[in-house]
Write a structure and sequence with these properties.
The protein is an all-beta fold and about 500 residues long. Helices cover about 0% and strands about 45% of the residues. The chain has one helix at about 65-70, and strands at about 5-10, 20-25, 25-30, 35-40, 40-45, 50-60, 85-90, 90-100, 105-110, 120-125, 130-135, 140-145, 150-155, 170, 180-195, 195-205, 210-220, 225-230, 235-245, 250-255, 260-270, 275-280, 290, 320-325, 330, 340-345, 360, 365-375, 385-390, 395-400, 405-410, 420-425, 430-435, 445-450, 455-465, 475-480, 490-500.
Length: about 500
């Protein structure tokens, strides 16, 4: 096979939605949405627009409400932090986001985006799908809304709304260029100033059609704005503009792609009469790009973890995020060297309301996650194992009942958990594997177990995965342990290994 010398779309075959991107010198940085996950607002870097690695999170947690912490039966699935806006201004990096859960807008800043700590400020209200914007004259703004887009001025240090500032309507109906029959009004604003003109990117969705990119431009920030449809192909939309050090332009966008999530695409941009023209000469999203080829998403976006740490290493690599705010006293990498210990601290009624599920993304077109765990310290009613997390989740794990352990596979394909198979287990170490096939939106997962780490057997049945809006996120691999009868048990995970191939019961 000839070596591939070009990048291919999608540039990241994984859930990295609502991307916001900047270039500083020869380095690109990107922020994205991870909703209910903690830490939140992931920051990635790249030297070539194609190969990305996680370098930071702007947010440790948005707050301590029950919804963010999975307390009292509450959750913030599909909410948490939404579309962020990443900017670099006068030597400082800023990334902003907003949350319906708290009703606030958040602005994080740092001098060192890769290694620095982030300063956080928050204020009300929650400005929906906003674009943080630093103008040349030193004034700072936030542009936000859906359909009717508004502008408000911030303080010079972007720490809140400028005292006395009043909101003004910037564009009465930003969806108008896409026609009158809309399912989703124009949102996802991203504002840029290029060669003295203001360019505003939005996404809209005509009924019976597909996600569409609309661009408006103006000579003054306050308008008037003229708009046009900039791209309508494959449903690739929502994003903005980025240039390369050698003067080429691209638009970064995402595409809904079933159960794996919303996946980033790049399209080339040419300039005609002062307008950005997106796509190839036919106005389509190209399959290949004149950029270096991808080296794969492992280990930059997802990675294996042996759970052994050297001195000075962080407890958890950046590829990991907790499902909601964790209870930090109930997980450890030091209680047993080389293992992740997940302890139970309360009784839970369901997997999706259980705390301290540790997750990372699934990736396409295929991916497999494997773990080994020691279940000798489970208590009656405990359930520990490997998950594929979404509303229609799948689980394979060990359940202890009346002193006896069983391997169990559960499917929530119907949105209610159904036990598909149960096998007696008479040893304390067991191995689990979950394989995902997202090829051409096949969206099927299969679960396996092994008693020796070598011979795999299928368990339960295939899980038809589906992207559901209550969770608003692509499927994630998850390591879990929760109690249904009594607190105090624990499970020790020896490793988590991820691969971009699937092998079945081999």
């Amino acid at each position: 096979m000839a070596q591939q010398q070009q990048a291919h779309n999608p540039i990241i075959y994984a859930d990295v939605p609502d991307l916001s991107m900047i270039r500083v010198g020869d380095t690109y940085y990107m922020s994205s949405t991870t909703m209910h996950m903690t830490p939140g607002v992931p920051i990635m870097k790249s030297k070539d627009l194609v190969n990305w690695q996680l370098v930071s999170y702007a947010s440790d947690t948005l707050g301590t409400q029950d919804e963010l912490t999975l307390r009292n039966g509450k959750s913030t699935y599909g909410r948490g932090s939404w579309a962020s806006s990443l900017r670099f201004h006068n030597g400082t990096y800023y990334v902003s986001t907003f949350a319906q859960t708290t009703g606030k807008t958040y602005i994080y800043s740092t001098k060192n985006i890769e290694k620095g700590s982030w300063k956080a400020v928050s204020f009300k209200p929650s400005y929906h799908d906003h674009s943080l914007f630093f103008d040349d004259d030193g004034r700072v703004y936030m542009l936000y809304g859906a359909g009717k887009l508004r502008l408000v001025e911030l303080k010079a240090d972007a720490s809140g709304v400028k005292p006395g500032a009043t909101e003004q309507v910037l564009i009465e109906n930003a969806s108008a260029p896409a026609g009158p029959n809309l399912g989703l009004p124009a949102e996802g604003s991203q504002l840029f100033k290029i060669k003295g003109k203001y360019y505003l990117f939005n996404i809209t969705w005509p009924k019976g059609g597909m996600r569409t990119v609309v661009v408006h431009r103006a000579d003054k920030l306050t308008g008037p704005y003229e708009g046009r449809v900039a791209l309508q192909d494959l449903g690739v939309a929502q994003g903005g503009l980025i240039d390369t050090p050698d003067g080429r332009w691209f638009s970064y966008l995402f595409r809904d792609y079933g159960a794996v999530g919303r996946i980033p695409y790049l399209v080339p941009v040419t300039w005609t009469d002062g307008w950005p023209v997106l796509g190839n000469p036919a106005g389509k999203v190209p399959e290949t790009l004149d950029l270096p080829p991808s080296k794969g998403l492992i280990p930059g976006i997802v990675a294996s973890d042996e759970f052994s740490r050297r001195k000075g290493e962080p407890a958890l690599p950046l590829v990991w995020q907790w499902n909601h705010n964790p209870e930090n006293s109930l997980w450890s990498l030091t209680d047993r060297k080389g293992y992740l210990r997940l302890k139970t601290g309360r009784v839970d009624t369901s997997f999706v309301l259980a705390r301290n599920t540790l997750t990372q993304r699934t990736i396409g077109p295929t991916s497999a996650g494997t773990t080994s765990l020691d279940v000798s310290h489970l208590k009656d009613g405990d359930f520990a194992g490997l998950a594929l997390l979404q509303k229609r989740y799948g689980l394979v794990g060990v359940q202890q009942q009346n002193g006896a352990k069983s391997i169990v596979m559960i499917s929530a394909e119907t949105e209610r958990p159904v036990e598909l198979q149960r096998l007696p287990l008479t040893q304390n170490t067991v191995y689990f594997k979950a394989e995902c096939d997202f090829t051409d939106r096949k969206d099927v997962a299969n679960f396996f177990y092994s008693l020796d780490g070598k011979t795999w057997k299928a368990i339960g049945g295939p899980l038809k995965m589906a992207y559901t809006l209550p969770h608003f996120m692509g499927y994630r691999f998850g390591l879990f342990n929760y109690a249904t009868k009594q607190a105090g048990g624990y499970a020790d995970f020896d490793y988590f290994r991820i691969a971009d191939t699937i092998a079945g019961a081999k």
